[in-house]
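Protein modeling request. Please complete all fields; requests missing the sequence field cannot be processed.
Requester role: graduate student
Desired output: 3D structure, token encoding
Chains: 1
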Amino acid sequence: MIDMIKISVPFLDTHIQKLQSGSADFDMSRLMKELGMTLEGAIRYENGKAIHERLRHKFESLPSYFASLAYKVCRDDLKGYPYVAIQGNPAKLLTGHNVYGSDNPELCTFAVVEAFQFAFPELCNYLDWYHSTIDFIDVTYTARLANDTLAQQVLNVLKNISYGQMKVTECNHESTVYWNKGSQHLVRKAYLKAPELTKRIEELTRKLSKEKHDHYAEQIKQLTSPEVKAMADGAIRFEARLYGRWLKDRGIQTALGNFTSYASEKMTELWRLAFQPVFKAFEGATVNAQDHTQVLNNLRITHQRTTPKGNISYSTAEALYDFYLAIVRDGYSSTKSRIAERSRATWKRKEDALLEAGLSRAQLMQFTGEQTNVIPLVRLINVDFGQQLPANWQEPAPLSLQAKTRPALKLAS
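Delivered output (413 residues):
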């Protein structure tokens, strides 16, 4: 799947002034006044109309869930000429979500281009589309594991994976790891999709409760469909941000017209090349693959409490789960000795709470601190290119055709 694209489109020579230094300039304020637009912003569509909005994220680091189209009019830049930078998520433009999507370069690139052209038809007449270029693309494929618990265990191992110059540079929260973040050549990223999807649904639901906008309702509808949920559960996404410099070094033409001529197989090939060092580093790494989800669920049912404000609290259950995991990790005898040495009453109280939730003392005593379910990492992570899409998947129509047959294009902001 192509998950994000950034395109640079220069202004036509007839609208710029060449300076003695060899660079170019133009009257941005006059142009913006004529066109009625800001130098930076976002675009969403509702009821067939383009709605311009303030950009709520830094343009250079838009989050992967960003569903509108972002643009920025640039003048002072290393490129040496004024241009418009356009950045958007083709999967969300075409289908309303990015849990899965197309990796067709032509379809995805023109989704971003056409969305911009719908919004700013007059500005497009000032732009030199023939010389537009791809600044970067995000190519993403997914490995599927049995459940989210196992996926989290695998991701925890990935946070310690480095190989040569490929270093882990950031672990964002519990569900994301970056390799070489900040590079202007290639950035690799692995993350869990299910937590991101859940968080996004919660955010949109809150927004819809405050503002009854159709595009919020449409986005929630897309994200809560059975197909989307099934494809997100247990999914680890491996995303490669391929910058223009990296692409050119590998013989890929980044001129817009040339890039759109590549086949989907070329995206798969580039992704394999980008992640080759990561998968090489998996050799020898292992995962202690034990799923304790049912224990956590039973603890939450047994030890939940209601706060004075009427909310359900699971803090006691979470603390007991940490106690249980300590027994699993260090062994029953070792954990008992450590805690009972300080307070036998504390040990008994915590053990009784586990027993109340359905565990037996015999179950707890079986944990000796030895890892009994260790699986090589390479056996768990399998990116099956034939299983990236649901069985009922159909390649979406180009955005230009969708606009004709479905005038009420609705995109989330």
